[in-house]
Structures are given as structure tokens and as C-alpha cells.
């Protein structure tokens, strides 16, 4: 079942269960996917839908940071709950160990890159994770690449 179809099915079940928070989040996700579909002028495949969900997760993480700084913990908790729900539609995120192993493999393939080659290492590492269908946080990959290249 396509990701968009699954979300629509879950919206229906959330309506029946009267789960307001879940319904609200799912509707927001569906709207974001529909807007992207309209921009693209063709249906989204699952990979493109996951990119939209990734963007939504990043936005929520930024919001949590801002709400926490502003002392609005109840809003930060709401955003965290939304992230949890959105992530349930995403492939499993890679742990730090997996990311380190992937980055080390890329560095070994490239020979002995220096900090000047960080961009190339990042590009190759992100491509490797994407090809494997592994979801990673770019910021975390960047930190690990810096550490492995000697920017310790």
C-alpha cells in the first residue's frame, strides 16, 4: 500500500476513534503531501513522500527547540508527539553506530580524504545511505564526518 493511501486510511480510523490529536497531525501530513503533489504536477512516489515527511520532522524539531527556549513546554510536547506519529510512516532511522560504519566505509573507499574533501565525503555518505534505504539525519552525519576526518 502506498504511503499516501496508508495515511488516508489512518485518517479514517482516527476519525472513527475520535483521536483529535492524531487526526489533526495526519491531516497536516496529508495536506503537505497534497501541496507537494500539486507543485510537482504529478503523483508522488513513496520516496518523494518520505522526503516531504522528513521536511515535516525537521520543522517540528526546530519548533521544539524554539518552544523550549521560550518556556512553552506544552507546545514542545505537542510537537514531539507529532514527530513520533510522522516517524511511524518512515523507514527506520539509522543509529549512530550504523552511521559511523557507513562514513568509515566511504572514507576508506575514497582513499585518505582530508577536511577539504568533507563535501565530497558527505555527498558520498548521504548517497550510500539513500541507496540502502536508510534514513539519516544530515546534521548527525556531518558531525560524524568531521570527527572521522580529523576535526576532532
CATH superfamily of the largest domain: Uncharacterised protein YqeY/AIM41, N-terminal domain
Number of helices: 7
Average pLDDT across residues? 84
CATH class label of the largest domain: Mainly Alpha
Mass-distribution shape: globular
How can the largest sheet be summarized?
none
- State Rg: 18 Å
The domain count comes to 2
Uncertain segments: none
User: What is the N-to-C order of secondary-structure elements (H for helix, E for strand)?
Assistant: HHHHHHH
CATH architect. name of the largest domain: Orthogonal Bundle
Secondary structure class reads: mainly alpha
Helix share, percent? over 70%
β-sheet strand percentage: under 5%
Note the quaternary state here: single chain
What's the CATH topology name of the largest domain?
Hypothetical Protein Yqey, Chain: A, domain1
Q: Kindly state the number of beta strands.
A: 0
Distance between the termini: 44 Å
Note down, in words, how this protein is organized.
About 75% of the residues lie in helices and about 0% in strands. The longest helix is centred in the middle third of the chain and has 24 residues, at about 45-70. The chain is mostly helical and about 150 residues long. It folds into two domains: about 5-85, Uncharacterised protein YqeY/AIM41, N-terminal domain (Hypothetical Protein Yqey, Chain: A, domain1, Orthogonal Bundle), CATH 1.10.1510.10; about 95-150, Arc Repressor Mutant, subunit A. The protein contains seven helices and no strands. It is globular. It has helices at about 5-15, 20-40, 45-70, 75-85, 95-110, 120-130, 140-150.
Amino acid at each position: 500500500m502506498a504511503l499516501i493511501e496508508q495515511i488516508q486510511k489512518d485518517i479514517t480510523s482516527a476519525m472513527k476513534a475520535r483521536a483529535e490529536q492524531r487526526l489533526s497531525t495526519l491531516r497536516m501530513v496529508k495536506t503537505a503531501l497534497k501541496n507537494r503533489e500539486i507543485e510537482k504536477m504529478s503523483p508522488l512516489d513513496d520516496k518523494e513522500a518520505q522526503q516531504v515527511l522528513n521536511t515535516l520532522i525537521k520543522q517540528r524539531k526546530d519548533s521544539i527547540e524554539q518552544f523550549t527556549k521560550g518556556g512553552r513546554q506544552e507546545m514542545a510536547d505537542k510537537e514531539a508527539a507529532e514527530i513520533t506519529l510522522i516517524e511511524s510512516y518512515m523507514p527506520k532511522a539509522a543509529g549512530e553506530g550504523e552511521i559511523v560504519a557507513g562514513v568509515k566505509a566511504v572514507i576508506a573507499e575514497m582513499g585518505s580524504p582530508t577536511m577539504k574533501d568533507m563535501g565530497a565525503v558527505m555527498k558520498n555518505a548521504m548517497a550510500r545511505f539513500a541507496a540502502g534505504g536508510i534514513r539519516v539525519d544530515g546534521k548527525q552525519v556531518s558531525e560524524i564526518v568531521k570527527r572521522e576526518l580529523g576535526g576532532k
